[in-house]
Amino acid sequence: MLDRTKSPEKSWGAAPRTYSNSRNTLVLGGAGFVGSHLCERLLAEGHTVTCVDNMLTGSPANVAHLMQTNRFSLVQHDIVKPMKFTGRFDQIYNLACPASPPAYQADPIHTMKTSVLGAINVLDLAREDKASVFQASTSEIYGDPLHHPQNEKDWGNVNPIGPRACYDEGKRCAETLFFDYHRVHGVKIRVARIFNTYGPRMAINDGRVVSNFVVAALQNKPITIYGTGAQTRSFCYVDDLVTGIIRMMNAPDNVVGPINLGNPEEFTVRDFAELVIRLTNSKSSIVYLPLPTDDPRQRRPDIGRAAEILGWRPTVAVEAGVLRTIAYFDSVLRIPEAVH
Ligand code: NAD
Ligand code: UDP
Fold it and tell me: Which of 104, 167, 181, 328 is catalytic?
């Protein structure tokens, strides 16, 4: 599908074809944590799925189990570069962007390009194809929030020159581009602001709090709390998020967002560490390390809009989701090459 005559990138799997009763769907960042679950669900719902990923934080292993169907194909490509495809897509999901702070700060200029140039490339494609296009935006739009819980009407409190800005401001600019393409060109957009999401297939060295704590606890290694641990986050299980993303994509065209998607179950980081230690029956100690610059102090989504417009709310309680995540990392630590 990607015009391979112009592209040196790799591709795996059969070239997808459009079946008469199957939607032709593009998932950018589909070999990452959330993207791989989304590809899986879309295939189960009968879509023909093209997954594009530059493998920065994702891996072909995350989607290896999807290769058996000829409705799935994987193309290695960086969305910073324009995309040319020979077919047309009905739906495009843009999840391409590193999401973990250490990953997005490793090459901040490329992170910014991914959000900004990537959004332009994605939107140009959606415009050409007359496709509906979903943007995985983030609770980082709210920065260190001035209101609690965070409501879509909040404009945010972001430091534009700090180390998180490449991600926060990149995602804010992407939202601007989505709404401008919608107003100027009539592109059918969907913008969701995703709050901290966790689950199987997070990379073991991802650096985010859930994977760090679970992996350390399973190995009885010290759990690293940054700062005092009084800061809060609200954790959503990946299956719930995927349901919300797909529901938003299939909502009427006037549902452009932004809509918060997250689980309002809020924890201090310290309480979350204790939960993980209890659920893993771990002997881990807790060590306190410096708080990263601009680390938001609190975060909990107001999901009133998602509930009212999409009829969506999370169904997996944090304890149940963390237990599933523990089981996943336990199996990865036992058989590192295992693909789930
Ligand atoms: P992830 O890092 O596991 O997945 C991102 C995927 O995008 C990876 O496969 C990566 O290789 C790919 N990618 C990165 N830059 C790319 C580029 N320039 N071109 C092509 N592919 C590229 O992260 P995730 O947790 O799965 O997040 C998916 C999306 O959801 C991201 O856009 C993220 O910003 C957003 N989001 C996630 C969360 C969360 O808690 N998981 C919260 C808010 C927003
Ligand atoms: N955090 C922590 N220890 C870790 C990883 C993260 O205390 O090993 C903290 C981090 O400082 C932040 C919270 O956990 O306050 C969530 O961090 P994460 O990187 O998962 O996501 P984000 O900060 O983007 O919400």
Answer: 167
User: Which pLDDT band holds residue 18 (cuts at 50, 70, 90)?
Assistant: very low
Closest CA to 55 of 89, 12, 5, 16: 12
Active site residue 167: yes
Per residue in 276-297, pLDDT (tens digit) is 999 999 999 999 999 999 999 9
Q: Is the CB of 31 under 6 A from ligand 1?
A: yes
Residues 243/178, Cβ–Cβ less than 8 Å = no
Choose the CATH number for 10-197+236-263+298-316 among 3.40.50.720, 3.30.70.1130, 3.40.50.410, 1.25.40.10. 3.40.50.720
How far is it, in rounded angstroms, from Cα 266 to Cα 264? 6
Q: Residue range 254-260: average pLDDT?
A: 97
Residue 263 beta carbon below 6 angstroms from any ligand 1 atom? no
- Residue 149 tokens read as 């819980």
